[in-house]
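Here comes a specimen:
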Amino acid sequence: MIFSILYKKQCFFFNKVVLIKKTLLLLQRVKLKFKIMSDIASRVKAIIVDKLGVDETEVVPEASFTNDLGADSLDTVELIMEFEKEFDIQIPDDQAENISTVGQAIKYIEEAKQ
């Protein structure tokens, strides 16, 4: 009888430990993914500031490369090429045409890096 109770308690605590370990691993993955995503955003913004010579405060997710940041078509192509180089990705021309804002660039790169 006493052994049965001890065994049940031991199993209960073992299951709790396993659950805690799994939860910690999941939290570490989420933290790493968030760090990677925020790192991508900061690197994208740095590239835009460098290539377009704009103030960092202007580089917000909804900012359009052409309308808000003053990029011409050549600047936009150079930005795409710099993103490809910096993040070691390939952006097909048909998809590059759809990247017209800072937020779209960040989102595309985050998805490409997953």
